[in-house]
Design brief:
Blueprint: E1 7-12, E2 18-22, E3 28-32, H1 36-41, E4 50-55, H2 59-68, E5 82-86, H3 90-109, H4 123-146, E6 147-156, H5 163-170, E7 175-179, H6 187-190, H7 195-206, E8 210-213, H8 216-230, E9 233-236, E10 254-259, E11 262-268, H9 275-281, H10 285-298, E12 303-310, H11 317-330, E13 338-345, H12 352-372, E14 380-383, H13 388-397, E15 400-403, H14 413-420, E16 426-430, H15 436-439, E17 444-446, H16 451-463, H17 466-480, H18 485-495
Parallel strand pairs: 1-4, 1-6, 4-5, 6-7, 7-8, 8-11, 12-13, 12-15, 13-14, 15-16, 16-17
Antiparallel strand pairs: 2-3, 9-10, 10-11
The structure holds 6-O-phosphono-beta-D-fructofuranose.
Residues 15, 35-37, 102, 157, 181-182, 347-348, 409 line the site of 6-O-phosphono-beta-D-fructofuranose.
Protein name: Trehalose-6-phosphate synthase
InterPro entries: Glyco_trans_20
Family: Belongs to the glycosyltransferase 20 family.
Length: 496
């Protein structure tokens, strides 16, 4: 049965606002979906008159999607939102999500390959790429079915890079935007991809009217790739004639890409923290309870260095631990006086490289505790079980926040800590995080590969006076909340 065209606004993302667990008795339990993208899009409330199309990620989701058929999920599970969850065949989903999106596109944009031996694009990858195409086509089909004439469609992230062009073919009347939540690779690195894939991803996004990014840096890198791979014309600030320069070093910010007779505008929307939500949520009883437990664990009179991440290769948790070890080695005065509270929550555990990384994080934390720990002091408190309330408690008490990714589209932790912090918190921030563009001035900025430099920054952060920390935190919080999720979402819509 054909789905009626009812939606004037559509959002498409791999992960949706809800995920389900299937009980042994066949019951389904709904939980809020996690991650930065979902937090940003949570601005889409029940009154937004929007339909959110997402993929079924696990067995519980697939069962919920099957029960809903072509209809939307039960609004009781989705906070009243209209959500269509696509039941994509498990092998197609696994090849598209684990194979292409998370093992290849994610690695390219975050510069994660060890290039003497990786990547290898073989016959298996060719099959995974075909799966990625059909997974994208499933989204394009669903969106084409749901959208009213001239609807606006906001397609999210690297999982769905082909959707804009596929959807335009099916529904030329729609206004289509794509938003990247990741960094974008510079052309030399991007061209590690097989030529057809490199061109396919760019052509896919250029099928839309607009391509938007979290920072200017990523928008410029995208334009540079379009010029280098496709020979596209780049329009830059103050230049309406188009810039044919292929070296990717035009003067102003790239504002549009012209290719094969079409123009795709570029935009930047730096997703900010949701201050109202965070302040209210972080004062609830479950957070208070965890705060007491954490305080007891840290011990009276000690300072804390807090980090909160998915256990993700790009987050650079290992070098963060090495820097902390170096701090204890070079500044013995901090021994017994500081605890590194490290939350490294499970992520992408279907991929062996993520499982290995998790093991490595545990091992180094154990080594530091063995090397320096004493009867009454455990230098690293590592927690690997996801607990949002405990993360908020750690934000409240942190003296120092360590955010040192190798590369990150934005990094919302860097923006959330100053908002929730009780007494002010010094931020040690990687210059390779998108958040650096907005927070760099009041953070202690580090090169994420430089363990020695990071150890020095931790020392500076711990020594910062209470007044300076409080002042900086105030300014960081103001910058971090400049574009809260609701405004970020409306800005994307408005620009289309
Ligand atoms: O683009 C980044 C992102 O999609 C964020 O939303 C989130 O932090 C992370 O990746 C989630 O990844 P996954 O959906 O694979 O768990």
């Amino acid at each position: 049965m054909a789905v009626p065209r009812t939606a004037p606004i559509l959002v498409a993302s791999n992960r949706g606002p809800v995920s389900y667990t299937l009980g042994e008795d066949g019951s389904l339990t709904a939980r809020r979906g996690g991650g930065g993208l979902v937090s940003g899009l949570s601005a889409i409330g029940p009154d937004a008159n929007a339909v959110w199309v997402c993929a079924a990620l696990g067995e519980g989701d697939r069962e919920a999607a099957r029960r809903a058929g072509d209809s939307h999920l039960n609004p009781g599970d989705t906070g009243g939102r209209q959500v269509r969850m696509l039941d994509i065949a498990p092998d197609v989903f696994a090849a598209a999500y684990n194979g292409v999106a998370n093992s290849v596109l994610w690695f390219v944009h975050h510069l994660l390959y060890q290039t003497p031996v990786e990547p290898v694009f073989d016959a298996e990858f060719a099959e995974q790429w075909a799966a990625y195409e059909s997974y994208n086509a499933a989204f394009a089909d669903a969106l084409a079915q749901e959208a009213v004439d001239e609807a606006v469609v906001l397609v999210q992230d690297y999982h769905l890079a082909l959707v804009p062009a596929m959807l335009r073919e099916r529904r030329p009347d729609l206004r289509i935007g794509h938003f990247s939540h990741t960094p974008w690779a510079p052309p030399d690195y991007y061209r590690l991809l097989p030529d057809d894939v490199a061109a396919g991803v760019l052509r896919g996004i250029l099928g839309g009217d607009r391509a938007a990014f979290l920072t200017e840096r990523w928008a410029n890198a995208f334009a540079d790739c379009c010029a280098a791979v496709l020979g596209a014309e780049i329009v830059r600030d103050g230049d309406s004639s188009g810039d044919r320069n292929r070296d990717g070093h035009g003067d102003g910010m790239a504002t549009a890409v012209r290719f094969e007779g079409r123009e795709t505008r570029l935009g930047v929307h730096g997703l900010g923290a949701d201050a109202d939500f965070l302040r209210e949520r972080s004062r609830r009883a479950d957070v208070d309870e965890r705060l007491s437990t954490l305080r007891a664990q840290i011990g009276p009179g000690r300072k804390s260095i807090v980090r909160v991440d998915r256990t993700e290769l790009s987050k650079n948790i290992v070098r963060g631990l090495l820097a902390y070890r170096r701090l204890l080695e070079t500044h013995p005065e901090w021994r017994e006086r500081v605890v590194h509270v490290a939350f490294a929550y499970p992520s992408r555990q279907d991929l062996a490289v993520y499982r290995d990384y998790t093991e490595r994080v545990r091992r180094i934390a154990d080594e530091i505790n063995e090397e320096y720990g004493t009867e009454g002091w455990t230098p690293v408190a590592l927690h690997v079980k996801d607990d949002f309330a405990r993360s908020l408690a750690a934000y409240r008490l942190a003296d120092v926040a360590l955010v040192n990714p190798i590369r990150d589209g934005m990094n919302l932790v860097a923006k959330e800590v100053p908002v929730v912090s009780e007494r002010g918190c010094a931020l040690v921030l990687s210059r390779e995080a998108g958040a650096y563009a907005e927070l760099g001035e009041d953070a202690l900025v580090v090169n994420p590969y430089d363990v020695e430099g990071t150890a020095r920054a931790l020392h500076e952060a711990l020594r910062m006076s209470d007044d300076e920390r409080a002042d900086r935190t105030k300014r960081l919080a103001a910058a971090a909340t400049a574009l809260p999720p609701q405004a970020w979402f409306l800005a994307q819509l408005g620009a289309l």
